[in-house]
Amino acid sequence: MTILGVDAGGTFTDFVCIDAGAEASFRIYKTLSTPEAPERAILAGIRGLGLTGKLDSGDLHVIHGSTVATNAVLEGKVAKTVFITNHGFKDMLRLARQARPALYALEFEPIQPPVPPEFCLETGGRIAADGMIVDTLTEEDVSRLLAEIANLQPQAVAINLLFSFMDDAFERKLEAAIKNSDLAVFISRSSAVLPVYKEYERGIATWLNASLAPIVSRYLSILRDQLRGCSLQIMQSSGETIAADKASDLAVNLLLSGPAGGLTAIQFLGRQIGNEKLISFDMGGTSTDVALIDGKINTTIEGQIERYPIGVPMVDMHTIGAGGGSIAFVDSGGMLKVGPHSAGADPGPACYAKGGEVATVTDANLVLGRLLVSSALAGSLTLSLAKSKSAIKALGEVLGMCIEETALGIITIANEHMAKAIRLISVNRGYDPSEFVLASFGGAGGLHVCSIAEAMQMKQAIVPVYAGVLSALGMTVADRGRQFTRTVALYAEDGVAKNLEEQFLELAELGRCELVNEGLSRSKLQVKYSADCRYRGQSYTLNIPWSNLQTCCTAFAVLHKQRYGYDLSAGIEIVNIRVNVIAATKSLSLPLHCSKGEYDKCESIKVYGSSEPAKVFNRDQLQTGTEFEGPAVVSEYAATIFVAPGWTARVDQYGNLLLSNKAIE
């Protein structure tokens, strides 16, 4: 069998191909993305890897991380959707949580609601907080709703009735009525998408799922048709994969599809090298994702995209608009700024010579000598130093600085943006970054890894093998699975332990049945349990692994003290229980490193800011155990690494580049 991981990013689409025989062999490929039709870049990669002949053989297994859902939300190009809720609550999405994004703005401009008021419909069928029926759902309610929906002509319908997580009978009745009508719409009900308390967050998740479903379904239909006989799975935001024919029904679970692959790969790498305390640093062409792994990948239900809270489980990471394509500019106050806007893949940075004239982080690295002029991005895209200098010179003239000083300023500002992001997921949560190893990947990460580690006082960093396509690698080793959630709202008191255990077992069986219905073998399913806990009176929760009630409460108190600096004598409440049902993938190991040649001599180049020349290495030709000191530039097919002065680099048995800061003992 051949396994193909595909990560379609904003600038590049990355591929990792594993021929899974007795000894797995790995191949990588990179091509420019085609955002207007992402499947075109995927097919180009399949051709480039020589896999076209396997499309009809049934021997090609594709796992895909897609930005289709993410881009639709960011660009506001979601499907026209009707939102149905109970009488008196049609303004639920407009009111939101009353959080003002600009607290001191004197002329506050209200945020536009995600669904126009005329598309928010009200109905009966209301459940009270105790589960009792307050207002029944009548046939007249249903008939009126069907007529209103037909008049509005939406592409999708989102159903979010109060307390439907306790009793979803009314939501199911509405869903069945719409399905049995002549309305050709996608339907999402909150009790299927996010069956937990907090009607606003549940409503946003349901609206997102409904409004993304037509877009995701259309794209996956095209992709399945193009890939014909291949097995196709889609990466979910939680780090597990889902069958493509099920993915459009849960489109809201795909919003962090690509970045989740990177974290999965870093966890896989950590287990290979025997170090699972890692801070991941994924710098691509458009954005940078950072996350902390302390033995496991953390997930969160408090993620956000644009201004919308995402209540579904997703990997806990922080994303900023700083990447290789981030645009540098001088603001109205004469200050140099970098990002969040990106030059993207087309026209791209000035050095791409595709018509782009604005200076970017990539241009700055090229001018400073950290990125080689001879580099061929994506295997074929040659770089123009003259174009980079011209773009940066224009900025320098405004700032009164030379080209090199301006380029260094761009890099310094970009580095500070990324270091700040790492502080948010480490220091601000009670973790000391110096106790972790910085794991850098993405096409641009290696150029900044030493500077970021120095800013965080981290002694060690690692640039993994296949760093430029690591998210695609993560997709090949991700488990198949789903997460299932239920609100229980029970205080941790005597007598509730048995109730909780019974509900965990019931939810686990529900999850097993779902995955068995998707074609997975029950005997291969594994179950992991966790609970969302809080002190009485609090609004937000911490997710704690579950083995029993006492252990869970103790672990919660410890984590709360670490995260917030205090604990309380108040009782603990178990708000939600969560069950993660997975089918583990076949165990893979990175192949032992085998260099593709040997150096007769080492070229040297001038790097701005260094008093000594930088050595230039081809990563493919570095042998296991090779050790050298910075400054050095290490070039590879899908990325470039800059080893800064004061750092030592060593190649381990898998080909990973281990970096050590000599200044920190």
UniProtKB/TrEMBL annotation:
Species of the source: OM182 bacterium MED-G28
InterPro entries noted in UniProt: ACX-like_C, Hydant_A_N, Hydantoinase_A, Oxoprolinase-like
UniProt GO cellular component terms: cytosol
Stretches assigned to the Acetophenone carboxylase-like C-terminal domain: 612-654
Domain Hydantoinase A/oxoprolinase: 202-479
Molecular-function annotations in GO: 5-oxoprolinase (ATP-hydrolyzing) activity
Bilayer-spanning residue ranges: none
One matching Pfam family: Hydantoinase_A
Domain Hydantoinase/oxoprolinase N-terminal: 4-180
One record GO biological process: glutathione metabolic process
Protein name: Hydantoinase
